[in-house]
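Batch job 17 of 40 flagged for manual review because the log was empty.
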Amino acid sequence: MAWIFRIIIGWVFMKINFGKIDIESKETEMIDITENIQKNINDSNLRDGYIIVFVPGSTGAITTIEYESGLQRDFPDMLERISPKSIPYEHEKRWHDGNAHSHVRASLIGPSLVVPFRNSKLTLGTWQQIVFIELDVRPRKRELIVEIVGE
């Protein structure tokens, strides 16, 4: 019964803060946004909770990875094996914009991520960073949505 009380009381006192992260990206670029996310948590003055990061648009994605040079090369290589640029896509037949593979890749990775934080610090692993991945075929200006829920 005590856990029900904690859930109800916790829910009543939870606060929600909103933020954003502006990004100017290049084609198929991986950008470490961990510090930007941590700054949003610090600015929220919340101690414990979770943060949601969401990219509006269908050719960008959010995930975690060890942000190091080997994986920065391996990740795009993996995407090329799974969803090659060179194969025919129905989207390309219709729109002729050259980014059908970008949409498929973004759908596979996903547009959002939820990460808990404790004592105002992200609970990431030692070698884990949060990254935005630009998958479009041209540079873009992006505004990532950040929602912080906590107490």
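Reviewer: the log was empty due to a logging misconfiguration, but the result itself is present. The mean pLDDT is 94. Unflagging and moving on to job 18.
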